[in-house]
């Protein structure tokens, strides 16, 4: 479970970094531009809109740092409970899976039309599932002894 939380937290922190640092990111496209204080180009923005943009970016940046810290902490916990190699592999598997989901849902990225990409993604999911089941059964056997 720690590896899952680590991977998803790390992936979502990347989404927040994109929102905080991208000059034409989703925050600017969807939150600020439709409002009355913001024009289409940043040169047209009022001081109120520039302040709102800076505050939103700062909020996303601080949240990104917090999620990264939590993800790193959970990553270390996952390595302790699953072993270092399995913990890293599981965290990376969940990070990649969450990145695909966030990219498709939030940014409209289309991954699913490439057969080789789908094969690779399927193998990553299969490997993550296999590692999860092996670690669970080994942990149960160890606790029973």
TrEMBL record:
Keywords: Membrane, Transmembrane, Transmembrane helix. The chain crosses the membrane at residues 54-73, 85-104, 116-136. This is EamA domain-containing protein. It comes from Triparma verrucosa.
């Amino acid at each position: 479970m720690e590896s899952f939380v680590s991977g998803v937290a790390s992936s979502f922190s990347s989404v927040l970094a994109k929102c905080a640092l991208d000059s034409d990111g989703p925050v600017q496209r969807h939150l600020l531009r439709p409002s009355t204080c913001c024009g289409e180009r940043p040169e047209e923005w009022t001081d109120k809109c520039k302040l709102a943009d800076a505050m939103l970016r700062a909020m996303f940046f601080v949240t990104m740092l917090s999620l990264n810290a939590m993800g790193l902490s959970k990553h270390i916990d996952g390595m302790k409970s699953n072993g270092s190699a399995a913990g890293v592999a599981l965290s990376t598997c969940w990070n990649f899976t969450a990145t695909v989901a966030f990219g498709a849902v939030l940014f409209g990225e289309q991954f699913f039309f490439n057969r080789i990409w789908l094969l690779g993604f399927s193998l990553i999911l299969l490997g993550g599932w296999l590692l999860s089941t092996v670690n669970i059964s080994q942990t149960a056997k160890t606790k029973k002894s």
